[in-house]
User: Fold these one by one.
Assistant:
Number 1:
Amino acid sequence: MLEVLGREDQPRAASLIALHAHAIPSGFSPAAEAEAEAAPAPTLKGREDLRRLPLVTIDPVDARDHDDAVYAHPDEDPANPGGHVVWVAIADVAAYVRAGSALDRDAWTKGNSVYFPDRVEPMLPERLSAGLCSLVEAQDRACLAVRMTFNAAGHKTGHRFVRGLMRSAAKLSYEQAQAAIDGAPDDKAGPLLDPVLRPLWTAYACLLKGRLARQPLEISSLERRIRLNPEGQVVSIEPRASLEAHRLIEEFMIQANVAAAEELETRKVPLIYRVHDAPSREKMDQLGDFLQTLGISWAKGEPPRTERFNRLLAAVREGPHSEIVNEIVLRTQMQAHYNAENIGHFGLNLDRYAHFTSPIRRYADLVVHRALIRALKLGSDGLSDAEIPRLTETAEHITATERRAMAAERDAADRYVAAFLADRVGASFTGRITGVTRFGLFVRLSETGADGLVPVSSLGSQYFVHDDRAHALVGERTGERWRLGATVEVKLLEATPITGGLLFEMLSEPEPADPDAPRPRLGVRARQGGRAPPKGRPPPRRGRR
């Protein structure tokens, strides 16, 4: 069957092409839509009344749904001096998406929502994702909440899960909440500053002590946001601000996810874990080889530990190699995935971890909600006997759908960026070499974060050898080199919105030969001449946490 998507040069075609190119299911079955439309408003039946708690949602300013709400206060228990109580309330999607229903079948097939600059392909119909399952301000909403207690050192000492009815006291953006804490509250955040926001930040300062002691991997990764006008055209590409408000919500969500995994293990109820294996010995050795080219010592043979990576990242933080060392440490990591068996989470340095906090957009979280309902006897809509034997299959499936979504999101972003730069063909840009292959160099532009290719055929008349240990292209005759992480000037030769491809010409000169480096081996020459790949990108970033 053929479907007309529109003209390929239309501004909003990028996300539609990505959806179809990666075979991401679009829309919902009539049966699923009917179930969503028939969903009733929540009541107190079978729920604890949490509407007295001033829970607030803190999300991106353009958030399309609101999974989670938070509230914190000092612990009044005299046995826990300096401790804090943190509430995390999550939309009770399991109450609406029952195992085996049409909604459940569609959600399982999709695996997760997919987000593009101009649209979202949701896991659930809008009636649920933006309605009954979204923690809308001043509306009664069903939730599954966890009350966690932390001591003065920031260690969790206990938790309790409840199925409740909540009412969000306010919908805030990260920027609003941060501005209020920084002394510039607006009319909405101002009244919440003392009763809600300051206690949240005080609790976060406490939890931060525990985080620092735990030493999760602290990689700095600059993300950029594509801004569109109403017609769908890119008007700017700018760095996403990294605020303390982001880190506060992240840490609260991590702790809630840990509590969910701990509860289910204690109750001996099967679940799907979010796991992350330690880097392989080969990747650790490759990291050591590269660091040696920068003059940074890195003893080989030591087991990978997050604390060791963090010391390295801290040592280079203020130096010229900070960005590329962060990039290489990130590439050294394995990809996180879902698994019915637990191997721990290396990056977060946690023994057990499950995704619990985003059931509107991730099927894994819905499974964990159902498992908690079953374990705690909170209703008849918990994890069914039929689902348990399929948990391994489900984990493999939703890992695949997550990778598919990431690829589609990246492809759409590449196309938007190429469209944005199409009018600047011939202009020169500053960038950094972020990938070295035998067919050329990948350069990431400092201004936009866009990635493009400098074909090896354009680097000069001599042959270049790909030194994979040093992550460099080395001139066979002169020993001059193009090294990963080097800052360069390039000229944009081509920008192809339909593929998202960018082609650059190198304007900078290579680094002079290193007299201490071994001469490149003959017979492993990089390609010269021929056509460059129509679209390329540097090695992929590792998966989401």
Number 2:
Amino acid sequence: MYNFAPPNENKMNQFALIECVPNFSEGQDKTKIKQITDEIEKIDGVRLLDVDPGKATNRTVVTFVGHPEAVIEAAFWAIKKASEVIEMTKHTGKHPRMGATDVCPLIPVSGISMAETSEYAHKLGKRVGEEINIPVFMYESSAIIPERQNLANIRAGEYEGLASKLKDPSWYPDYGTNIFNVSSGATVIGARDFLVAYNVNLNTTSVRRANSVAFDVRENGRIKADDKGRNILDSDGIPVRIPGKCKYVKAIGWYIDEYGIAQISMNLTNINETPLHIAFDACCTCAGKRGMRVTGSELVGLVPKSVLIDAGKYFLKKQKRSVGVSDLEIIHIAIKSLGLDELTPFDPFKKVIEYLLEDKTAKPLVQKSLISFANETASESPAPGGGSISAYVGALGVSLGTMVANLSAQKSGWEDKIDFFSSKAEEGQQLKNDLLDLVDADTIAFNKIMDALKMPKVSASEKDARKLALHHATIGAINIPLEVMKVAFKSMEILREMAEKGNPSSVSDAGVGALCVRTAIEGAALNVRINCSGFDDKAFVADVLTKAEDMLNRAKVAEREIIAMVEKLIV
């Protein structure tokens, strides 16, 4: 597994993880972009996930993650390099910008709060201002001045208006001086929630028409005007606004030469309130009312897997289909429904944060083909053994029940039952995934016992260390098959319901599933018993064996009842 924690960090913070998504004002010169990203990759404890240049915007969005100290170190050197290779006096692009490093947000990922992330943002901002002489404005959760929470307020006037803006005392930077840095402009730094940069494609080349849709959709909407086109003001002389359809959405329209189309360019700043698919549908509706059509969309940078999972499930429900299918199938539906592959190929394994962070070596068994898995089991190696096979058989059993649920959800005339079967299929998918995780977990637990047995035992301290390691490894080797039993037993209820209420044409599959799950539970019980044999913690062993025997007995009863239901229906 990739080790993000740098040395000498205290134990409480060593697993903290933040994401940094700096936007650099260069999207065309690959050499300059690489010089910047090379600075990031030099720093231990960070991992560069994505580099997304845009030719028309002349802007590159970079994403990297790591321990907070390592991240702000990498961000500092990237900002410094950008100040050396990017000349803002020569920069042009479609996207608003005010500096070589236009904006550098930090986003808490795990093990760290927003307030703590904000402290790191201030640490970075102070260093950039003092050591690189770039004016730094703090925004979002790190804003010192409330008016600066909104990036658009800070960036108003862009680079071209920055020199005069810095002369205004109300716009002195939070760090650095108010002296205009002609070459590098200014930088905005802060901690914020996850933001999705998202562009929706239109079948028009008109920026004005694209803007009309953007104003319909964005939270800020448009200024209300009278019949003569004059702005309507309130009692304080402030323009009255007509709010747009989507909260927490910022949007503008622009034309992209590279693609020959106009787009609605959006920032979704709270994907819980307005998720991707809702913003997309709003664009479709508003474009349709104005005689246009949405043809697809584009994600800029990376997204959490939940963004695409939520979208895929949304569109599956609209199609009146079960959402209890694999994550990859759900994501495929999201990609096709949103048209994410219209302009360029969309590879979720390069765009989804969790997939990029996934340790591909952590689950060697379940990554194998069926033939390779069988060959590995049949080899001279003692692992994978009965515990891993039990978990895999259980995964196959609950997969059959999940299949019956999905087929039942599509049965003609059963439209009123879709929600029920869909929910059961979702439960089955989760149980299947849990059991697949336990396939490798069982082998890992066995290997820990082998490692403990290989420990030296010459001195008294070595003997004590070996005994303690063996004790903990044995507990793990007992608990893993016990967990297999627990998870597999939960799937018996799904199989029972599918045998009783599912599509009669698939009832035999529910029966086979029950047989597999019973085998998984009985096989895992054997592993529990053999691993308990000779273990010196008698109270622990007695408790575990009681639980295992109770589950096994109930599983046998459940399997007989399910098979009886199946046999009645297939006579």
